Amino acid sequence: MVQAGVIVVGGGQGGFQVAASLREEGYQGSITLIGDEPGLPYQRPPLSKGFLAGKAQAQQIELRPPAFYAEQGIALLAPERVTSVDRAARRVGLASGASLAYEHLVLATGARARIPTVPGADLPGILPLRSRADAEAMLALLPQVRRLVVVGGGFIGLEVAAVGTDMGLDVRVIEFADRVLKRCVSAGVSAYLADAQAKRGVQFSFETGVIAFSGSEGRVARVQTSRDDDFEADLVVVGVGVEPNVELARQAGLPVQDGIVVDAHLLTADPAISAIGDCARYPTTWLAAPVRLESVQNAVDQARCVAARLAGRGTPYSKVPWFWSDQGDNRLQIAGVSEAGDSAVLRGDRACGKFSVFRFRAGRLAAVESINSPADHMAARKLLAAGTPVTPEQAADASLKLATLLAP
Ligand SMILES: Cc1cc2nc3c(=O)[nH]c(=O)nc-3n(C[C@H](O)[C@H](O)[C@H](O)COP(=O)(O)OP(=O)(O)OC[C@H]3O[C@@H](n4cnc5c(N)ncnc54)[C@H](O)[C@@H]3O)c2cc1C
């Protein structure tokens, strides 16, 4: 049990939650939350949804109002960057020149948007979408935008495409793979979501890479692709994945492998340092190999797990992963984690726009992808958490209430 002082690096979803949960757990020592973004910790999901659509203001996406931090005795240092970790002395160095002592350090440094390394990628008008500052930069440009090109048919790209069509923009999505969301969902769900966007006017270029951007009057004007297609663009949003922020951990000599390597308790190789959220790679019972997940659920539940451990109630992290994405009128919810090769069983009616795809691996339920079917999603989370056996026949039988499979 930690008593003296916890420092949390990263004032995002996970870092905020560690600080808040430590107090909920009754921890009475000092908590210092250090984040390099200006302002209060905020939620990222609205950045590609309501915030970008102009339906939510900056204050509305803050995780807590300013008074929360003083009331809870959480020292928030922002914007401030942690530049070094001295494990032997248990101190962190700050960009401002100060250094602070910790008894336990939590690395919740998140991830940063990957930027293509093709010619012209640094032209004004080409933006990633990771931070509130990115979204604000996009909002400032949008009034002059008619043609939006989205590079990457992942979750963020598709959400931005949906907001773009709502705004009446010409939207094109350029995707390297042969379908959207290929790494994350079954072919059926990919096809449904792409069709839905196409009906709203989004144009797709599949199996296409971007090879260069070119500009006019000091900003991006064209996107050149591997298929010799050129697309005109007033704004390019790049959603081609993220790089975990592992530099601090690496500098501190901690094992790093596409994420900070942690054990089942989310501890790094140093028992005085934990890592959580988008930056951490952890062993899970849901997959054969350790995994790094990027979701609000993962950041929040891992933060709670670490806070409980620091307060003396440690248990291995074992929560069922889940995720959501809003794309126009469609809400995708995923419970569990699928892999290429998992079989897919349809439940419900695709034509009605309400269905789920149950993914099975070696005869066991591995994940459930639900479109506009929150009841299936909630049941799936419970079934996965309980380890309840589900057969493909039961999954396909839409007349069977999934909740009845759970033990009373
Ligand atoms: C546009 C967008 C939409 C999303 N939509 C969804 C969604 O619909 N559903 C969902 O489940 N998930 C969604 N996500 C993912 C989700 O927001 C992330 O998984 C979650 O924020 C991860 O939390 P985190 O604390 O690990 O990292 P982050 O929230 O990224 O926070 C990390 C923070 O640490 C800071 N930092 C890094 N290094 C340092 C340092 N050395 N010193 C100080 N500070 C540092 C970073 O600047 C950042 O502020 C979305 C993400 C984005 C970007």
TrEMBL record:
Cofactor(s) needed for function: FAD
Coiled coil location: none
PANTHER family to which the protein is assigned, alphabetical: APOPTOSIS-INDUCING FACTOR 1 (PTHR43557), RIESKE DOMAIN-CONTAINING PROTEIN-RELATED (PTHR43557:SF2)
Residues of the Reductase C-terminal domain: 322-406
Highest taxon of the lineage: Bacteria
InterPro entries: FAD-oxidoreductase/Apoptosis (IPR050446), FAD/NAD-bd_sf (IPR036188), FAD/NAD-binding_dom (IPR023753), FAD/NAD-linked_Rdtase_dimer_sf (IPR016156), Reductase_C (IPR028202)
Domain FAD/NAD(P)-binding: 6-303
Organism of this sequence: Ottowia flava
Classification via Gene3D superfamilies: 3.30.390.30, FAD/NAD(P)-binding domain
Pfam families linked to this entry: Pyr_redox_2 (PF07992), Reductase_C (PF14759)
SUPFAM superfamilies (UniProt xref): FAD/NAD(P)-binding domain, FAD/NAD-linked reductases, dimerisation (C-terminal) domain
Name recorded for this polypeptide: NAD(P)/FAD-dependent oxidoreductase
Entry keyword set: FAD, Flavoprotein, Oxidoreductase
